[in-house]
Amino acid sequence: MFEPILASLRSWWTRLLASWRGSIKQDSTKSLGRKGEQAAAAYLASQGFRIIDANVELAAGEADLIALDPDQETYVIVEVKTRSRRPGQPLQSAQTPPEAAITAHKRSKLRQIASHLKRTNQWTRTRVDVIAIEQIEDGGQPRLVIRHHKDAV
């Protein structure tokens, strides 16, 4: 029953990764972030999440993604952090994981965003997840490393 849907998601995911690999070298930081958000959305969909919205601007800040958990009860505000890893990068840049960019101030903003969305939409359950994406360029085709931290904030 779900095989056609899963096959379609796999195909979409493969096309997304192929297009990302082809253009990543010319991308600005903002563009890299948007591509990371697209990859995160595809990853979440492949894990059974339903993407509700993306790049939602609120007074407290922006929600990169809003998704419905596979449990069909929990709305998830997703913060996506994307970094490019390539030879010759400064050591500190190469060793700092994307997750480290989520400061105490950012965590506070994410909690405010989640609270506002929960109250406004009368959702009963919410959480904030973090997806860290590293695009690694090591001479061959770039590859993605995706880490999903549930209830991270």
What are the salient characteristics of this protein?
single chain; alpha+beta; globular; Trna Endonuclease, Chain: A, domain 1; 153 residues
Distance between the termini: 35 Å
Number of helices: 4
What's the β-strand tally? 5
Low-confidence stretches: none
CATH domain topology: Trna Endonuclease, Chain: A, domain 1
Helix and strand content put the structural class at: alpha+beta
Plain-language structure description:
It is a single chain. By secondary structure, the protein is an alpha+beta fold. The chain has a single domain (3-149), classed as Trna Endonuclease, Chain: A, domain 1. The chain is built from 4 helices and 5 strands. α1 (3-23) packs antiparallel against α2 (29-46).
Give a nutshell description of this structure.
The chain has 153 residues and is of the alpha+beta class. The protein is built from four helices and five strands. It has one domain: 3-Layer(aba) Sandwich (Trna Endonuclease, Chain: A, domain 1), CATH 3.40.1350.10.
